[in-house]
Amino acid sequence: MADPTKSKIDQHSGTPTMGHEWDGIEELDTPLPRWWLWTFYACILFSLGYVIAYPAWPLVNSYTKGMLGWSSRGDLARDMAAQAAKVAPIHRAIAATPIDQLPANAALMQAAVDGGRAAFKVHCVQCHGSGAAGSKGYPNLNDDDWLWGGDLVTIEKTIIDGVRNPDHAETRMSIMPAFGRDQLLQAAQVDDLVAHVRTISGQQKPDAASRRGGQLFADNCAVCHGPAGKGNRELGAPNLTDGIWLYGGDAESIHQTVWNSRQGVMPRWGDKLDPATVRMLAAYVHSLGGGEAAPVPVPVPVPTVAAAVDNGAAEATSDARQ
Amino acid sequence: MTAAPLSLYAKRKGVYPKAIDGFYRRLKWVVMAVTLAIYWITPWLRWDRGPYAPDQAVLVDLAHRRFYMFAIEIWPHEFYYVAGLLVMAGVGLFLVTSAVGRAWCGYACPQTVWTDLYQHVERFIDGDRNAQIRLDKAPWSAGKIARRVAKWSIWLFIAFGTGGAWIFYFADAPTLQQQFWSGTAAPVAYATVAVLTATTFILGGFMREQVCIYMCPWPRIQTAMLDEKSLVVTYKYWRGEQRGSLKKSLAQPDAFGDCIDCDQCVAVCPTGIDIREGPQIGCITCALCVDACDKVMAQVGRPRGLIDYCTEDDATAEKAGRAPRPVIRSLLHVRTLVYLTLWSAVGVAMLFALGTRTRIDISAQQDRNPIAMRLSDGTVRNAFTVKLRNMESRPRPMRISAEGLAGVSLWTDRDGRADARAAIDTIVPSDSVAKLRIFLAAPANGPQREDFAFTVRATDREGGTASEPAHFERLQ
Ligand code: SF4
Ligand code: SF4
Q1: Is the C or the N end of chain B the one with fewer CB within 10 Å?
Q2: What percent of chain B is modeled with pLDDT above 70?
Q3: Rounded CA gap, A245 and A234, in Å?
Q4: What value of ipTM does the predicted structure carry?
Q5: Helix/strand number for chain A, H first, E second
Q6: Residue B12 is nearest to which of A35, A239, A244, comparing CB atoms?
Q7: Cβ–Cβ < 8 Å for A154, A293
Q8: pTM across the whole model
Q9: Domains of chain A
Q10: Across the interface, do A243 and B374 touch by the CB < 8 Å criterion?
């Protein structure tokens, strides 16, 4: 270490050395420039001011708060409040615009889609998945197949009233009979029905079983799913001829569906979320790629569910309408 | 010998460079005038780019992320051009160093230029070297305060006018100037002017050579790059020693060398060093000592160049009585040529790239969640966010298609699948990026991952295409 007794003046630079040497290499003891010292003092002064103004020292259960009263939580709260204040007028505008008029205002529509994306991540991903791609029993909201309809107004209604909420008169409601379990059909008849459904969806060739099933279909199923099996959105009856299956399109899954029936539910959000959020959710779901342009007019009078009930679904209750 | 008691901190030794005239001094004037003029005038030059782009010749438009330089417009994704410029600047410094040593430090470095300017102001107010020393030592008086106030005001004024002018590179200069004086410019403009005025004032007025000696990394890099072929300011000790006053050397011509120990070279040095101690980090090779010594030599009737630009090789040759290499050969030695080649190669490559770059571009990002999904008609849909860049200053019609994907149809989120088609036409506004969400539907049978290319073609007269490889994903 430095040994002042061995320090000497270096010949070339005229600067004293530190007094130690390794293998003949010595270290100069060059003085620091004075301005550096002043810079150092300035830093100390700054840090004193900082400690007084800002939170600095940890205490046993707390910490020094600083004169300015700054805290990162306070910062966050301020940011959140500022953000809420910023979006409040947009939310008000969205709430005040009927959803079918939203697309006319491109900027507001975009704001609704973006807000809906955020709200979807909070309320909807649990069932429909983070990409809204759904899974077995939970519809994929990206595709172009809709149980209850895919235009903005209809999507919004579905979100407000939910599906099959027992305590809510406005809810989307329909009940498919459990044809096998409730012995409305024989086991062999169910097999024939499955063969028919597989045939009209183009998954297998017509054969004797499917022909028998066709008659059964006309008698038992056509009232909701339509004579050609194209479904009926008034009843949330799926189209059985397309490529999309909520519960699977293989023989096993269809058999399960016919035997036990399927009754998926969705909460109604009208009593949980404010109208603007529901509207934004509808706009977002509509924007995912399957959104339809306008309400699909229903050209023919629809058979009522009561007819289906008459056809054998004993448990179908009388509020299964529309 | 033991050391004197140490002081931990060294006070700055005052440097009071004396005025001098001579060849290098005039060269410095010219370089200062030219560099300051370029710096000052550039933002005010205009360059017509049509109605959609600013007409400032050189503009770093941070808000819109564009960099304009005369006919060249650079987008953020083309930042490699800026990187290329930086590489050229770096190699250029190496080139200059290997050819003429620390010429950057001596003539062109802003620190040198502003310090030089400030020293002239100092001489104008306080007088030359001796008067400055006297004034510094004198107690505070009304006269001294008046001079200090005058000097610092002029310094501040220069700092404001030159350092502050930096902001004009970042916005339309005439508009910004108007806003600046009417108090409506952005706060960042005032802050920048304040910071640059303060740093110019402090670095040029008070820190001066300490910046070169303590703060700047360049002298350290220089030290590593100098070799025996580098031009450095050299005191030719073999000719100058043994030093002796004019009187003594006249009395005993054989005992003394050419240096008459008049200390003029030290008096004029802006960094306050004595070049006769040999090359050192403090020497910025401004050659003012060359001018000073040449003047002295002329007065005493001895040949000029006792202090001169000289390479180590030439010094050895001269000591041995051989002729030095011609200047042109010492300028163009191998290392210089290698740097020159490298520098030109980067420059030519950039010019070539600039000349052949396309002014439209496409990028496509695939939706990952879900990546693929079935549509009710059994086809498979993928979705992409496609960005079209139009880098021209006018709106351009463009057509996007998916090349190499059989049976594909495209539509955007603005229209529906009812309008699905083989290609999408759109108009991209001038100088901007258009973002489209594009849906693709293709038959379900096919490879699980199929390569294709998003291709965009400008459908106006100039045309041009760009494409981006992408994959179409199918469900397992
Ligand atoms: S020694 Fe000479 S060349 Fe070097 S900085 Fe001083 S005056 Fe300039
Ligand atoms: S100016 Fe020339 S003569 Fe005078 S001291 Fe310096 S080297 Fe010697």
Answers
A1: C
A2: 99
A3: 18
A4: 0.72
A5: 11, 3
A6: A35
A7: no
A8: 0.71
A9: 87-173+265-293+302-321 (1.10.760.10), 187-260 (1.10.760.10)
A10: yes
Choose the weakest-confidence range: A212-221, B217-226, B417-426.
Answer: B217-226
Average pLDDT value over all residues in chain B: 90
Tokens 């329909």 identify what position? A174
**pLDDT less than 70: residues of chain A:** 1-4, 294-322
Structural domains counted in chain B: 3
**B428 and B409 within one domain:** yes
Residue B351 lies in a domain: no
- In a domain, residue B340? The reply is no
Domain around B438: 360-473
Same domain, B308 and B456: no
When CB atoms are compared, the residue of B207, B210, B413 closest to A287 is B413
The DSSP-derived string for A215-239 is HHHHHHTHHHH-TTS--BGGGTBPP
Looking at residue A78, its pLDDT comes to 96
Residue A175 backbone class (left: φ over 0; alpha: ψ -120 to 50; beta: rest): beta
Cα–ligand 1 centroid distance for B286 (angstroms) = 5
Q: In this structure, are B210 and B235 located in the same domain?
A: no
Q: Which residues of chain A does B381 touch, with a Cβ-Cβ cutoff of 8 Å? A: 142-143, 289
Q: Which residue shows structure tokens 């529509």? A: A109
Mutational test site, ligand 2, from B234, B262, B275, B310, max ligand atoms within 8 Å of CB: B262
Residue B336 falls inside a structural domain: no
Whether B32 and B162 share a structural domain: yes
The confidence score (pLDDT) of residue A311 equals 44
Q: ∠ CA(B111), CA(B113), CA(B116), 5° rounding?
A: 100
pLDDT recorded at residue A184: 94
User: B224, B249, B276: which is the final residue of a domain?
Assistant: B224
Q: Are A278 and A157 in contact (CB under 8 A)?
A: no
Q: Which residues contact B325 (CB under 8 A, 6 or more apart)?
A: B311, B313, B314, B317
DSSP result, B209-268: HHIIIII-SHHHHHHHH--TTS-EEEE-HHHHPSP--HHHHHH-TTT--S-----HHHHH
Greatest C-alpha distance within chain A: 116
> B158 with B118: CB under 8 angstroms?
yes
B210: nearest CB among A5, A33, A142: A33
B273 pLDDT higher than 90: yes
β-partners of residue B365 are B385
Distance from the A101 Cα atom to the nearest Cα atom in chain B, whole angstroms: 15
Structure tokens at B445: 């049978």
User: Quick check: A161 and A171 in contact, CB under 8 A?
Assistant: yes
Label the pairing between strands B9-10 and A32-33: parallel
Residues of chain A in contact with residue B210, where contact means CB-CB under 8 angstroms, are 33, 35
